Every structure is written in structure tokens, then in C-alpha cells.
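FAQ

Q: What does a record look like?
A: Structure on top, sequence underneath. For example:
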């Protein structure tokens, strides 16, 4: 799901690399119809679906004569992921849109290679209970969570005392708080280490991404906020760590390349051999670690609050952030307005302690509408 995005295209690279082992059965995209058509012709999946229904005719006419079923709309995607021939669903779409099809895949008992962290941010409690109910499992694709998952392999969970999430610190790590008022979209999109989609790159610059990853870790590994520590590690070589009760810390290292965690998730529990050059530590003679600056990056502490409060609060934070990031990407608000919009929206929306799926849907709509209404106030 989301085959035309950054994770989606890299997942197809892995399918090419191991073409005897994996086959693409279903490819879906939001609006990138041209790339989806090219991917369909190259990978010949059984089905392709475009979420934007206005692009259905283009997709269908371009794929006429191919042995590929073509459909459109988010309902069609949610239905198709349940097909019995699918073993693994890679969830790589952007933001809240990942929730519904991921739930549908879980209900069909699929293994989820989870790249869409917003699914767990928005509805972690619901997803966790559905996983148990339908005997489905999640293998994380997010590099930090893949690292933690690997560190926990063969360990007893009660021996893990702390999760240490590493963060690159993004492009603004060394900028002052005053400087952040004036950074541009181009500055924010220039991530020092990772090549990612626009939404997650902005989230990395604001450290919202690390906040979401805290929430994601909380649900994936069942640990409270106080057992998750964020450490800034600008070289992005140590992808995350776990501290154990005997004083040991395990880390997973590698080059900053999303093909690694995708390869691990698709191959799990095996490790697939690759021709790609391994990490050469002599090229990285210095690995450094420092505490994050919460004054510069308040979204990180809002994520901490969101885990503590629980209920629909993470869903509100995610919705407000999606609106703020979209507004920042169109250059209509400042970088430093994004946390203000998140904080005001979190204060405004009514708290629901144990949200149902319908509560999440309503909270998401309400929070987005409120965050939208704040944009006039902050418009540049
Ligand atoms: Mg990550």
C-alpha cells in the first residue's frame, strides 16, 4: 500500500532483488498514477488500485490488455488487502489514510510490515487489541523500531528496561530557536542523512517524527513513556538501542538506508543475503550522542504528553500536525507555528479515554477542522 512513495519504491527494489522469493500481488497509490502505471507494467501484480477515483479511467486505459485487475477508491483498497493470496502487507501510505486498510489487513490475519507509523500513533490501542484478536502480527519497517525489534530478538521482554530511540536531530539541530522562525521549506526538506518523503522529512526537522516514533514504540513494545529515551545521534549509524536489567545495552547499526529494515521485515525471521556493501565503521570514526533540545523542538514533549494522557490525544496531535505540515509545505505558516497549532488543538478537542474506531474517525475530523481554523491566525 503506497507503492509510489519513498518506502513503496524501495520495497519494490527489494522485490526485484529477491524476485524468486517475493512477488507483488497488489499495488496501491494515492494520486501518482503515472508511476503506478509504470510499476504495474514492470511488476505485473494481480491488482492495482488508485485511491483517487478521478484517476481510474487513466489507469484502466493505460493497463488495457495487461492481465491486471484495476480499481479505484479507498474502499477497494481496504477490501483487496484481505485477499487470501497475500502473505505480507507493506503499509507505506502517508498519514491517517493508512488506518482503515491496515485494520482490514489485520482482520484478515495478514502479517503487516508497518511503515505507516501514524496507524499506531492514531489508534495504537485499537490496533494492539485487533492484532491479538485476529492473530496477526506487525514487523516494524521504521528503522528505529526495526533496530529495537532486532535487539529484542531472543530476549525476555521483562529484562528490557529502557528503549533508547536515536534521532538524527534533522537539518536544524545546530540552529538557534530564533533562527527556526525564519527557516524555509527548502531548508526543512534537506535532511542530512535519510532520503524520505516530504511529510516525514518535515516531521524529522520538527522532531515530530521522533515523537511519533515514541508513541509507535510504546504500542509496539508495550512500554510506558518513561521507559523510552530519545538520544540525538547525528550520524544515524546506530539505529536504536535497548538497555537491559543487567546493565547491558544492545544496539543495531547499519548505513542509513531504508532498504535494510524493509529487507529485514520481508525476510523475517530469516536474514536475506545482499550484495549491497555493508557498513564500514572506519568511514565513521566518530559516533556522537546528545540529549534533544525540547525548547527548540516542543513537538517531542507533546508526544510524551500524548502517551501519558492516552485515549484520543495522540490522534488529535497527529491530525493537527498533518494540517500544520501541509500548511508549512505550501509556505503559508512558519516552521515555529507548527507546534503552536498542535498545542492549541490538543487543548481544544474533548478527551475520550477509550475511543472506538468511530471516535477516532470523529476526533480526526474535528481536530483537522480546528487546526485548519487556526491557519488564518498564523498565515504569513
Ligand atoms: Mg524512523
Amino acid at each position: 500500500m503506497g507503492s509510489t512513495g519513498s518506502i513503496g519504491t524501495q520495497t519494490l527494489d527489494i522485490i526485484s532483488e529477491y524476485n524468486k522469493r517475493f512477488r507483488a500481488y497488489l499495488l496501491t497509490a494515492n494520486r501518482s498514477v503515472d508511476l503506478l502505471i509504470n510499476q504495474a507494467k514492470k511488476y505485473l501484480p494481480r491488482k492495482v488500485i488508485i485511491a483517487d477515483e478521478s484517476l481510474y479511467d487513466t489507469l484502466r486505459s493505460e493497463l488495457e490488455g495487461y492481465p491486471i485487475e484495476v480499481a479505484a477508491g479507498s474502499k477497494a483498497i481496504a477490501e483487496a488487502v484481505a485477499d487470501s493470496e497475500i502473505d505480507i502487507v507493506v503499509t507505506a501510505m502517508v498519514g491517517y489514510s493508512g488506518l482503515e486498510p491496515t485494520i482490514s489487513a489485520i482482520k484478515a490475519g495478514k502479517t503487516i510490515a508497518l511503515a505507516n507509523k501514524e496507524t499506531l500513533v492514531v489508534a495504537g490501542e485499537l490496533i494492539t487489541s485487533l492484532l491479538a484478536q485476529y492473530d496477526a502480527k506487525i514487523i516494524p519497517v521504521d528503522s528505529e523500531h526495526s533496530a529495537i525489534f532486532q535487539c529484542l530478538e531472543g530476549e525476555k521482554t521483562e529484562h528490557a528496561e529502557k528503549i533508547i530511540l536515536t534521532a538524527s536531530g534533522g537539518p536544524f539541530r545546530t540552529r538557534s530557536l530564533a533562527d527556526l522562525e525564519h527557516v524555509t521549506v527548502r531548508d526543512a526538506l534537506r535532511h542530512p542523512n535519510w532520503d524520505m518523503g516530504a511529510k516525514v522529512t518535515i516531521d524529522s526537522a520538527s522532531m515530530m517524527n521522533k515523537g511519533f516514533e515514541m508513541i509507535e514504540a510504546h504500542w509496539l513494545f508495550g512500554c510506558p513513556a518513561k521507559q523510552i529515551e530519545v538520544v540525538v545521534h547525528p550520524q544515524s549509524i546506530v539505529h536504536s538501542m535497548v538497555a537491559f536489567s543487567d546493565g547491558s545495552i544492545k544496539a543495531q547499526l547499519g548505513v542509513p538506508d531504508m532498504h535494510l529494515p524493509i529487507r529485514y521485515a520481508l525476510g523475517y525471521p530469516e536474514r536475506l543475503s545482499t550484495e549491497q556493501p555493508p557498513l564500514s565503521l572506519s568511514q565513521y570514526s566518530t559516533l556522537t550522542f546528545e540529549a534533544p533540545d525540547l525548547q527548540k523542538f516542543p513537538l517531542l514533549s507533546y508526544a510524551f504528553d500524548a502517551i501519558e494522557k492516552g485515549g484520543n490525544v495522540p490522534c488529535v496531535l497527529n491530525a493537527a500536525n498533518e494540517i500544520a505540515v501541509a500548511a508549512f509545505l505550501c509556505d503559508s505558516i512558519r516552521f515555529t507555528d507548527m507546534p503552536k497549532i498542535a498545542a492549541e488543538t490538543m487543548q481544544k478537542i474533548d478527551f475520550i479515554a477509550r475511543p472506538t474506531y468511530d471516535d477516532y474517525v470523529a476526533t480526526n475530523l474535528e481536530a483537522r477542522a480546528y487546526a485548519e481554523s487556526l491557519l488564518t491566525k498564523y498565515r504569513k
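Q: Is there anything notable about this one?
A: The chain has two domains: 6-140, 166-252+293-378.
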